[in-house]
Design a protein that fits this description.
Layout (H helix, E strand, L loop, with lengths): L2 H7 L11 E3 L5 H10 L4 E5 L5 E6 H8 L20 E2 L4 H11 L3 E5 L5 E6 H5 L4 H9 L6 H20 L4 H28 L11 E5 L1 H5 L10 E5 L7 H15 L1
Parallel strand pairs: 1-2, 4-5
Antiparallel strand pairs: 2-3, 5-6, 7-8
Length: about 260
């Protein structure tokens, strides 16, 4: 994998730093600050009994809300920032970096598939090996999850491919990268439509568990800039008598995704 394509194919889990300081909400601010100092941490995440984040205390919070302002025994929950902005370990790294830059975040807690804190992503560490050209391409590929934003991402793929070819990146690597970006677009379109259908009384949540599969050149990792939309659903098993109830849902979902 070349340096030019590396950032676009890495996941957040590939760049996690040291484990974050995690404490219960009733921990005193004195203990939180001492833990941060002992572990040279720039923030502490407040977690519930299931390791889900309920708040965060940063260096700025220590300066603005804690130092000389509250008693040492004050519970951290009284000065924490909440709710907590988080990302998933399975998110693409370039999405996370662009999101953090847009929100002005220096670090962000990372959650595993169960919603538990599993690490911390530092913006400075993630940006350390990126060029300005790569950052510009990254932002072009991370628009908001509206249809207009997704169309903009597709347009940005042309710019990305041109830049990679100019840097003599092998064609198979460019195809593999375009495939990853197209798969991400498929996933975002799926989530967007599922959320919309869940809010509609006529449809609601998906009636059975299912997976979206990408076929053709996308399945082989050989996408060009404008591939055919070749995908399908694999549904969990259900009784034949339920076809009339279940099939219309996925027909509607497929039509919305087309």
């Amino acid at each position: 994998m070349s340096a030019q394509t590396d950032i676009f194919r890495r996941l957040v889990s590939d760049r996690l730093g040291d484990p974050p300081v995690c404490v219960p909400p009733d921990t005193s601010v004195l203990e939180v600050v001492q833990r941060m100092e002992a572990e040279t941490a720039t923030c502490a995440v407040l977690i519930d009994k299931k390791w889900r984040p309920v708040g965060i205390i940063t260096e700025q919070d220590v300066t603005r809300r804690i130092a000389f302002r509250v008693a040492p025994e004050t519970p951290a929950s009284e000065v924490m920032t909440s709710p907590v902005v988080t990302i998933a370990a399975s998110d693409y790294l370039y999405h996370a970096v662009a999101f953090m830059r847009r929100r002005g975040l220096r670090h962000i807690p990372v959650l595993n598939d169960e919603g538990m804190v599993c690490g911390m992503l530092s913006l400075s560490e993630a940006l350390g090996f990126l060029s300005e050209e790569t950052l510009n391409l990254m932002h072009a590929l991370t628009h908001e999850q509206t249809m207009e934003g997704l169309h903009a991402v597709k347009s940005a793929q042309v710019q990305l491919a041109e830049a990679l070819f100019e840097n003599n990146v092998p064609v198979p690597e460019v195809q593999a990268l375009l495939t990853d970006i197209n798969r991400d677009i498929h996933a975002r379109i799926l989530r967007r439509n599922l959320k919309q259908m869940e809010s509609e009384k006529e449809w609601g949540p998906a009636p059975v568990e299912f997976s979206l599969i990408i076929l053709g050149s996308g399945g082989r990792g050989e996408n060009f800039l404008f591939p055919d939309q070749d995908n399908g659903f694999i549904l969990d098993d259900y009784p034949d008598a339920d076809h009339a109830r279940i099939d219309p849902y996925f027909i509607e979902l497929a039509e919305r995704m087309t």
